Fold:
Amino acid sequence: MSPSKSKATQSVASSEASQAVPVSFEEAVAELEALVNVMDSQNMGLDQLLTDYKRGAYLVKYCRDRLSQVRKEVTEIEQTLNKPVDEGDQ
Structure:
């Protein structure tokens, strides 16, 4: 395989990895923590750092979006609970 093809293959693979959706919020946080630890503790090449940074940015966005969604659902539940019960509904 020529060097340009291997770089293109690596680019596609890293792009797909940065878009892999976590199974849960907790998994995303754990992966993000692991990425930070690896990036802090190892002397990595620039391309790998960029790939890991992109994945980290994706995970941060995923976590923020998930938290926003949960806050919205909690607000909706609270609004439902705070509505007065109609006499006819009992």
User: Anything to note?
Assistant: The chain has three helices and no strands.
